[in-house]
Specification:
Its main location: membrane. It comes from Streptomyces sp. 900116325. It is a multi-pass membrane protein. With about 190 residues, this protein is an all-alpha fold. The chain has a single domain, classed as MFS general substrate transporter like domains (Growth Hormone, Chain: A, Up-down Bundle). About 80% of the residues lie in helices and about 0% in strands. It contains 7 helices and no strands. The longest helix has about 35 residues. The protein is elongated and about 60 Å long.
Length: about 190
């Protein structure tokens, strides 16, 4: 990977506002039209596709051609997963319990991210250590080991998302019920 300054990375990076736009579109258009049983697994499969695409990075690949496109696909996928899942998780909850339900969903998301980060870090670190084991560490070997650790984490993440797509496809209720619940929940005024 090439060294870039923070300004270059900030300008060319996968900015959070891009994902926010995708999340808004998915929440307002695809979610009500198709329901979480279709949208969430499709989003997970998109994210898995982007992660598999990222496994092709190399030491001299360019950001614009080889990193940004898969990140946009991952962002599109996650934009279809997160807001729809959060909405479905709190749909049908009584107005008086909406805050507690939302807090529970947010807490579980944070716990899941923490456990996932620890797991993927362990897998990536183990892959890098195994890659350099028995070799004289050179700058080139360490760079290759780092890339190997990234691709290992990308493959595992893609597998986790593929499993998540199957699980959510089986666990979410049918299209009609979930969509009606989400729309009904959005139309219910909050109680102060």
């Amino acid at each position: 990977m090439r060294d870039h300054g923070s300004v270059h990375i900030g300008v060319s990076g996968d900015a959070p506002h891009r994902r926010a736009v995708v999340a808004q579109v998915s929440t307002n258009i695809t979610g009500p039209r198709f329901g979480p049983r279709v949208v969430v697994p499709a989003g997970m499969l998109l994210a898995a596709t982007g992660l598999v695409w990222l496994t092709g990075i190399g030491a001299h690949t360019s950001y614009a051609a080889h990193v940004l496109p898969p990140l946009l696909v991952i962002g599109l996928g996650l934009g279809h997963v997160m807001p729809i899942s959060f909405g479905a998780a709190t749909a049908g909850v009584d107005a008086g319990d909406a805050g507690a339900a939302s807090a529970t969903v947010n807490t579980m998301q944070q716990v899941g991210c923490s456990i996932g980060t620890a797991l993927l870090n362990t897998l990536a670190t183990s892959a890098a250590a195994a890659y350099v084991e028995g070799h004289t560490p050179t700058k080139s070997l360490l760079a290759e080991a780092q890339l190997h650790s990234f691709t290992t984490a990308f493959w595992w993440s893609a597998g986790i998302f593929a499993f998540g797509a199957i699980a959510t496809g089986l666990l979410f209720r049918g299209h009609g019920t979930a969509t009606v619940d989400l729309q009904k929940h959005a139309e219910t005024p909050a109680v102060a």
